[in-house]
Amino acid sequence: MFGCGFREDNTIWGFYQDSYDGRDFLTFDKETMTWVAADIGAQITKRRWDAEINDNQGWKHYLEEICISWLRNSLEYGKETLQRKEPNNSLIPVVAGVITAVVLIGGIIGVVIWKKKRSGKEPGMGGFPGFPGPCTPA
To answer: Which residues cross the membrane (predicted)?
Structure first.
């Protein structure tokens, strides 16, 4: 799964975490553009994925640019509701939470569909959504 967000001071954050058989497998560290293995069984895949520099740069770009752009657009679409002046402002966190959840769920659905199309390959191999990676058939 993956997702992104930004704080009130406009600092951004993003994550990509892969799992296998219901357990954590690898997590992407976008600062170092390397993968963190959850256990010893993920070490072989970690070494392979760390070597995929173009894919890792693509994930960093996706998490810091594309995902944030989609989130900002979604918030812009809900701007009128979010900025409504009412005595009870409890709606603001709910709408912001729903928008964030929609972005996260969309990302999860995208990864699931993407992985189903790539059945038979290692989990997560092939780059980031919408862009082929080293294991993607030509």
So the answer is: 91-114
Question: Tokens for 53?
Answer: 């520099």
CA distances from 70 to 22, 48, 64, 104 (A): 28, 30, 11, 11
Residue of 125, 138, 130, 137 whose CA lies nearest to 56: 125
CATH architecture of 2-117: 2-Layer Sandwich (3.30)
pLDDT tens over the chain, length 138 residues: 999 998 889 889 999 999 988 899 999 999 999 999 999 989 999 999 999 999 999 999 999 999 999 988 988 888 787 777 766 556 556 666 666 666 666 666 666 565 665 555 555 555 555 555 544 444
